[in-house]
Specification:
Helix content is 74%, strand content 0%. With 167 residues, it is mostly helical. Helix 6 packs antiparallel against helix 7. It is elongated and about 60 Å long.
């Protein structure tokens, strides 16, 4: 009986201490972010995504993670790697949650970063075309079309085109 009690107590503790909820991790991440504690915020957002991928907080957490990388706020990550990670996280929002309200903006942002930050024009073109195929009526559709038209041009070339079309 004594041995059974010794085995039962840790098992009950383990079951009772499953962990925080998705909302608790998300709120914890937001608090860390408010304190400019990026590393711990990132860790808590990642916990939401890994432990609660079907929760309403998972796409929000992915959006926050992508934004942290896009804004190059994650410590010890190079600028290029940070943008590449942002693209990856934005794409994962669309891939995992295509019906979520964040999906269109995330897909657009991945195309935007591919084109304007990483100069990966082929990938950006594919991403923008997918965006236009899936979200042709979205408010960013006209921006995606314009991005496709101006892809790879220098600011001077874009200005010349704009002036020529305004005449």
């Amino acid at each position: 009986m004594k041995y059974l009690t010794l085995l039962l107590i840790p098992a009950l503790l383990f079951i009772g201490c499953k962990g925080k909820s998705a909302e608790a991790y998300f709120n914890e991440a937001e608090a860390f972010l408010g304190q400019q504690n990026i590393a711990d915020a990132l860790s808590s957002y990642e916990k939401v995504v890994s432990d609660y991928p079907k929760s309403e907080y998972a796409p929000q957490a992915l959006t926050k993670i992508a934004s942290l990388y896009q804004n190059k706020l994650v410590p010890n990550v190079s600028e290029r790697e940070s943008i590449e990670k942002a693209v990856s996280y934005y794409k994962s929002i669309y891939d995992k949650y295509p019906e979520n309200q964040a999906a269109p903006v995330s897909l657009f942002m991945s195309g935007f970063l591919l084109a304007n930050e990483l100069q990966k024009f082929d990938e950006a073109t594919q991403t923008y075309n997918l965006f236009l195929e899936k979200f042709s009526n979205h408010e960013l559709a006209s921006s995606a079309k314009e991005e496709l038209e101006m892809m790879g041009l220098t600011p001077e070339e874009i200005l010349k085109r704009k002036i020529a079309t305004d005449l």
